[in-house]
Amino acid sequence: MALRHKIVLIVAFASVGGINTITESPIYGIAGLFTTGSFTQAVQVGNGMAGVLNVTANVIIRLIVLLVHSHTDQDQLSFYIFMSVLIILCFIAVYVYYRLIHIPPVNIRINQQMASFKRQKLGNIIDLYHDENKLSFWTLTKILKTHLFVQFYVLFISLLLWPGIPCNASNTGWFNSNGKLWWCSPFVIGTFNLGDLFGRTLAVKVHQYFSSKICLVFALLRTLFIVIIFYRHHIDNIFLLGLIILMGMTNGLLATITFMVRPQTIVGVNNCERAAYLMTASLYFGIASGSIVAAALALAHVV
């Protein structure tokens, strides 16, 4: 990319990432107020749709700009479009959040929780959910240990390997000529996002077949995708895109199932909400860890 000031690039990604986390996390918290996993699955699908919309808008805007300015630096153009669209999506997320909290069932749950917190602060032991056995975060962590690890590890592997490593793969066929400038975006980024959206959508249909142990096995098997690091310069680009689709699909499927299906020992609104916070923290820890390790490997010229 022709950007001279790399610090600007880092600050831009950090700022947009922070905005994305701030706007997305509260929606996961609201989903945690409901004991059924379908609400969480809806948030996950929306997350996947945002990625697809970003890539789609990126392609459309790039084509329009290139029709007017054919000699524009496409890498720099793609970067600016990506950041701009992501910021717009974050503002849309804020709008969705405020519309969501005014839906009657959601508003009632939020008011009940706020009333419960106020009573606890005043030292009143009477609770709306008197039959609920409140669990500490540590107890919930022990119950959710497999779910938390799967959530973390799935996102860690995905962000370790995507999008940087496939984007730097040797180009073959059409991607070595006219399609070279379109390889990273939309193909590498878009194929992963499409697979991810498909996996998140499929989760509600197949989650009953995936126990926590099965999710753990599949999460560990995703480690095999590391072969992309060693063979990205030696395999056909179409085959590599197929691997990326599979990686995206398993990412969306496992991340959604472990988020939406809680152990039966976690009951009650308070416990479900706390479990959602823990899962959200694990999700972002996986994203951050995978990205940081990928950046460190790139700086060390390992990949």
Describe the structure in your own words.
This protein has 303 residues and is mostly helical. The two termini are 18 Å apart. It has helices at 6-31, 38-68, 74-100, 104-121, 137-143, 145-161, 164-167, 183-206, 212-221, 227-231, 237-260, 269-299. It is built from 12 helices and no strands. Helices cover 74% and strands 0% of the residues. It has one domain (6-299). The longest helix has 31 residues, at 38-68. It is a multi-pass membrane protein. One of its GO terms (molecular function) is nucleoside transmembrane transporter activity. Belongs to the SLC29A/ENT transporter (TC 2.A.57) family. Its main location: membrane. The chain crosses the membrane at residues 42-65, 77-98, 148-169, 181-198, 210-231, 238-261, 281-302.
* Total number of beta strands: 0
Which structural class fits the helix and strand makeup? mainly alpha
Helix fraction, binned, reads over 70%
The span between the termini is 18 Å
The description of the largest β-sheet is: none
What is the count of helical runs? 12
**What is the overall silhouette?**
globular
Task: Work out the radius of gyration.
Answer: 21 Å
Order of helices and strands: HHHHHHHHHHHH
Poorly predicted residue ranges = none
**How large a portion of the residues is in β-strands, by DSSP E?**
under 5%
Mean pLDDT: 86
Number of spatially distinct domains: 1
